[in-house]
Structure formats: C-alpha cells, structure tokens
Amino acid sequence: MQVKPLGKPCHGGAPGDPWPSAMAVPIAVLDCDLLLYGRGHRTLDRFKLEDVTDEYLVSTYGFPRQFIYYLVDLLGATLSRPTQRSRAISPETQILAALGFYTSGSFQTRMGDAIGISQASMSRCVANVTEALVERASQFIHFPEDEATVQSLKDDFYGLAGMPGVLGVVDCTHVAIKAPNAEDLSYVNRKGLHSLNCLMVCDARGVLLSAETHWPGSLPDCTVLEQAALTSQFETELRKDGWLLGDSSFLLRTWLMTPLHIPETPAEYRYNMAHSATHNIIERTFRTIRSRFRCLDGSRGTLQYSPEKSSHIILACCVLHNISLEHGLDVWSSPATGHMEQPEEEYEQMESVDSEACRIRQELLLTHFS
C-alpha cells in the first residue's frame, strides 16, 4: 500500500523527505482501520492470553491463565449479548479489564493499552463483568445443605480451637465509597467517611457462605444483622444442630453465640478463648479479600460509584474470592496490605434477654469447656 503525504513535512524528517518512513506504516494502518471498521477495531483482538506468561497475568490481572479461562467459559455467553456496536469487545478482553480494575483499584492507561481498549471501554467492561458475576452470586455464595457437608463444616471449625457446632463466623466490614450527595448522611460512618457496611459469613477455610454488601455505613453492626436476610434465614429455617459465632457487637441468639462480657470461671475463659480463635477466621478473610481486590482496600481512594454499583462491585469480588478458592488459590497466600481504617463500634456490652439463647450457651459451657 502506497502512503502519500497529506500535509506539511513532519518535524524531524530529513530535508526533502515529506513524510518520515518510520511514521508511514502506523498512520496508514490506523487510517484504514478507522475507515473500514470504526474506532478501536485495530486493538480489540490484539491481546491473546496464549501470548503472555502466567507471571505477567498474575502480576497485571491478579490471576493465572487457567482461572481466566474458567471465567471466560462461565461468563462468555452473558458477555457476548447483542450489542449496537459494530464490533463488540470479546468476553476475554472484558474479563481482563475487570480483573485489572478489581485487583489494582484504578483504570490505568497502561492496562487499557495492554489489552487495546480505552479507559471508557474499561469502565463498561467492569460494569458488564460485575453484573454477570452478581447474577451468579447465589451459585457460589451459599450455606451447604446436605448433612455430610454441614458436618464437615462443623468438623473443620472444631479442629481450629475446639468450638463445637459452628456453621460459620459472622462479622461486618466497611468499604469506602464516594459521597452519594451532600444531603444523604446515611452512608457516613462513625469515622465521618462514606462507606457501605458489609455483613459476611465464612467457613473455616475463608469461603464466604453469605455476603450482604449494600448496607449504609451509618448503620451499626447489630442493626445490620437485625435487618439482614441472614437473620430471616436462620430464624425461619432454624437449625437446631449448630450456630454462627459473632463478636460482642451482636446480641446473643439461639443461632448466634457471642463471647461472655466478663468471664469469671475457667470454663468461661476457655469458651471465650476458643470463640476468639475461631472467630478470627472472618477477620483474616476480610484482610485477604482486601489484599487481593485492591479496589476495596481504600489505598487507591474510594469506589467512585453510586452505593448500588459499589455494592455490586463488592459482591462481584466476593464471588471471585470463592471461585479462586475452588481453584486452589489459597485464601491465606496473599500478603496483607493497608486498608481503610474500620470504624470502631460504639455499643453497650449487654447480655441477651433471650433466655433460650442464654440456656444454650450455658449448656455449651458446661458440656464442652468445664
């Protein structure tokens, strides 16, 4: 293809050379692509997973090749929905863009350049992949139902510190978001920052069994739990054979064991120690999720989305967290990083007025810790 000059000589060209040869091919290719296919066509398919190393994929997008292939198989049909654009961005590219954002917390120009899309396109990719993952949340985040799996769940917890009957550990964590508007104070937490208060339950390996990511940051943990679907689930499908473990920000319930405020007997001290060691799993899980998904840890600033969209991004990261564990990516393998300072709960230490819950905890003390 012959390239003809369209204007004055470029700066830096040799005398008499109206168009430096080094510039001819790129400009010709770009012009042809724009004329034939529209903006961006030349870069949509230029990035191939098979062309880069696993080390590059992990360092840039946070996950190895086989994990990304799995996501392409899982989400491909959803991400290939009809588009008004003449050339849709491939599911593979959309997933890479979203993983890049989740794990770095920013729409970096170099990341978009690597896969050949603009920052605006990256933003659309994040939205598409996020919704596709949220649609599948119940597939990957749920309590086990069959008896054998439930028993294995309790056995794993018992092996940690000797606490019997544990079906999960529950706690809340805050994720910083941008202020929805100047008038709405419902998302302002006790530190004066805008956040979502996320209620989560995990098993002994750090697998999430429940994740409610939409609660306004102004709500204390006990209020979040009171209003949560989790409470309805445990009270309407009451499990007589086990309970969750929660810290002192929650009230003691028949299905939620909390520590004793002032332990006095050796049995009470042993109970509290076992409770603390077991409940610590949820804190480790929170740290791991933040270190793996840097968009949540506050180090790159707050999530620059509405509360609803921010909630969906958090839930999408929770789904990816569980999928990564299914693929053998160890929950404790990522180093801890700095994260948003969590608001300290200001609550009165109080014992539950639920006499049946008190009886169950006392029986637990006498049976297993005396």
TrEMBL record:
GO molecular function: hydrolase activity; metal ion binding; nuclease activity
Cofactors: a divalent metal cation
Major localization class: cytoplasm
Pfam families membership: DDE_Tnp_4
Subcellular location: Cytoplasm; Nucleus
Species for this entry: Pipra filicauda (Wire-tailed manakin)
InterPro entries: HARBI1-like, HARBI1_animal, HARBI1_dom
Name of the molecule in the record: Putative nuclease HARBI1
Assigned keywords, A-Z: Cytoplasm, Hydrolase, Metal-binding, Nuclease, Nucleus
